[in-house]
Every structure is written in C-alpha cells, then in structure tokens.
Specification:
heterodimer; A: mainly beta; globular; B: mainly beta
Chain lengths: 113, 115
C-alpha cells in the first residue's frame, strides 16, 4: 500500500522569499517520489524525481527536494520565489511495478509581489 | 523530446453525442494513461495501457471506452456522458516496468464540458 499527504493545502509567500511545500509518504517498498507543477488550465510538468540515487534532488526552475527515509518525507524547496511559481503542486509516489501512482491532494502556492 | 500531445484542447458535447479524445507521444514509451481531473483536485487514474494492452481499469463507467491502436496513440471514446463527467482529461506516458522509475510525462489535457 502507498499513500501521500501534502501537509498544506495553501502556501502563500512573498516574491524573493523561500518556498517550502511539505510532502509525507507511506510505502511498503522503497518508493520513487515525484513533484509536479500545474499552472492554471495546463497539464502537469515534472519538476523533479527521486528514484533511490542521491537523496538531495535538484529539479527545474531552481526547485529541489530532499528524500528523508527516517521521516518519510520529500519536501520541496526553493530559495527565492518568483511570481511565475504561483501554481498547484502535486507530490506523487510510486512503490510498485504495477504502473499505478498515488497523488497527494495538491498545494496551491500563491506568490505575493 | 518529452512531449505528449492531446486533441482537442476543448470539447463541448451533449449527453447523446459520441466523441473521441486523442493522445500521441513519440518518446518510445510503451505505457500510456488516462486521468480525469476535476477542479481543485488531483488527477484520478482511469486506465493504463502497457504494451498496447489494457492493464488497469479503475472501475470506470462503460460510457468511457479506451483504445490503444499502436504504441504511439491512445484514444478515449465518449458516449452518453453525464454533466458530472465534465473535467480536464489528461493523458500521460512512461516507460513501463523499469523498476520504479516510471516517470510519467503529461499532455496539456482536453477540457471537456458535457451539457
């Protein structure tokens, strides 16, 4: 069994300040973990992924995430928010070869000028 | 090229109409997916095709009928839909079975409105 919990449904930051979007997971096996971003009326774009290599993963647009097995977490961070980062963010886990992924409920990121 | 294309971008249909959604990828992926996404919600998996065979059907009503004519194309045939079927329909593709590195690449979606 696998599940994902995104701890914040909404996060609001000021432009130029750090971003932290939190994700906890549960998995019976070693998981692969992903962060996707979805801008309004668009599809999902892959930001980054963890697949059992380095625990600190760097993605596109300055985002990075750290896999912490002891805390079952995969939080997404960015040092300095841009207005263009305002979007919906989804944390996703896959822990089997069955082709099924589990999505978190999403976090809406608002960036204030 | 990590592009998945979907047509049409928007679709309005009546409850008695028959229409089809199309998805195409040229990344050599052999797994393709249909998701349904309602507003302010995460995508919900509908179907998975692996090597052109239906491998997962998440108990989707029969008014949705998927088809995978070849390794690059995925269709979703719609018939007698209900207004609650209005949603964004997303297609995705990935390499199947490569351990757990099944990174899914998503298309831009088709926005469906059922009247």
């Amino acid at each position: 069994a696998q599940s994902v919990t995104q701890l914040d449904s909404h996060v609001s930051v000021s432009e130029g300040t750090p971003v932290l979007l939190r994700c906890n997971y549960s998995s019976s096996y070693s998981p692969s973990l992903f962060w996707y971003v979805q801008h309004p009326n668009k599809g999902l774009q892959l930001l980054l992924k963890y697949t059992s290599a380095a625990t600190l993963v760097k993605g596109i647009n300055g985002f990075e995430a750290e896999f912490k097995k002891s805390e079952t977490s995969f939080h997404l961070t960015k040092p300095s928010a841009h207005m263009s980062d305002a979007a919906e963010y989804f944390c996703v886990v896959i822990s089997t070869n069955a082709g099924k992924s589990t999505f978190g409920d999403g976090t809406t990121l608002t960036v204030k000028p | 090229d990590t592009e998945v294309t979907q047509t049409p971008k928007h679709l309005v249909m009546g409850m008695t109409n028959k229409k089809s959604l199309k998805c195409e990828q040229h990344m050599g992926h052999r797994a393709m997916y249909w998701y349904k996404q309602k507003a302010k919600k995460p995508p919900e998996l509908m179907f998975v095709y692996s090597y052109e065979k239906l491998s997962i059907n998440e108990s989707v009503p029969s008014r949705f009928s998927p088809e995978c004519p070849n390794s690059s194309l995925l269709n979703l045939h719609l018939h007698a839909l209900q207004p609650e079927d209005s949603a964004l329909y997303l297609c995705a593709s990935s390499h199947p079975g490569q351990g757990r590195e099944e990174t899914q690449y998503f298309g831009p979606g088709t926005r469906l409105l059922v009247l």
